[in-house]
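> @MW can you paste both from yesterday?
MW: sure, first one:
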Amino acid sequence: MKKRPYHHGDLAAALLDRAEQTVHERGSGALSLRELARDLGVSPGAPSRHFKTKQALLDALALGGFERLVHAIETAREGADRTFAAQLDAVAHTYVGFATGNAALLDLMFSAKHSPEASPALGEAAQRWSGQFLELVDEGQRRGEVREGPLERVTLTVFAPLHGYISLTASGVLPPAAASQGLDDVIASIVRHCKPEQSVQRTQPAEPTS
């Protein structure tokens, strides 16, 4: 029995769902509009009504990924205490959870946003995501919980360790026992590093007097 074609109003969503599954299982290089059409039981030319090229479909996947990640981080921050440590904990666990659960999609998101052919919508979504880290550090600085310094440079010291942890975890370099506790250790290290200098000095043990 032949599959019934998808209604045109649902085809774009169906293509995105199936394409994301393919990227997750086999990588973006395995994506084919003709194969997607066959899997969904529609004519070979049907996908082009929504996505003219494979790259257009990949860009739409990347855009959807950034929108989901931005929303997830916003939701996590809303449910956390307003201290820098609590906000960082919420953001870090959300970002790492998304990244490790959608590693191939995250790679696609990063490569697509750097493409000179990236759509304005994709560029704006990527900026909203990076802006969430800048906002996190900016609020911490204004509350006196984060050391002074150029916002972009201080934010890099927050983002870089998290991205490094993601790379180590996704590649399997970290053993399971280390990976399960590693994120909390990374977060604690970031919080210590971000403290204002006076706060760090106060927490250091006093030198013994003779």
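MW: second:
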Amino acid sequence: MKRSLQAGLLVLCGLGLLHISLFTDLCLRYVKEGMRPLLIASGVVLLLLGIAGALLDRGEGAGDGHGHDHSGVPRVAWLLLLPALSLLFYAPPALGAYTAARQPAKAVVHDSDFDPLPRTSPLPMTLSDFTSRVRQDRGQAVKGRTVRMTGFVTPGDGGSWELTRIILNCCAADAQSVKVRVYGGPALPADTWVTVTGTWHPGGTLGTGSAAVALDARTVTKVPRPVNGYQDALPLQ
């Protein structure tokens, strides 16, 4: 019953999607949180289609007297087998330093007036906020301020490294990275999640496009990777 093989492939694909989206958080390595319901629905549909196909095949086999048909399985269908098995038994890792090192930093544009910064010290900031303040805030509000940001390590050159966040608009295919070059602190392995406190590293003219998006680190503390690391969120507490 070659049709049963097709049904089996649908079942495997459905189980793979349900495994990463319903029973674990693995789907958050590849898509935004808002896509999870669609993945769950797709997994359920594939699973039901596979089960229905197997039941129909069994019914036809019992009624035609010889229990098999001569319909072939398209070769392209077998390409579904590997990703389905991968989702079930070995899900690819999340995007990280390897991806960030091979793409330019995302252009960050602040399209309104900057509000005054809180007096908190160190000041929690996202990498996007820090970037826009450094290059667009004519008031130079970050000058001399101690800030705190969280991201993962992307190795660099010349004794520096980049604090990085990867942001998804939809899925891993449209990933973009926001980076802040860090001077000082320990040399940590790529993809290590850290919270960094420090001050703006002088370079260029603060508040203009020539300013260096960089930080002189005072402290670097390892932190756990958040469940959904594809957000440029405030530092972890």
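> thanks! DSSP finds five helices and six strands in the chain.
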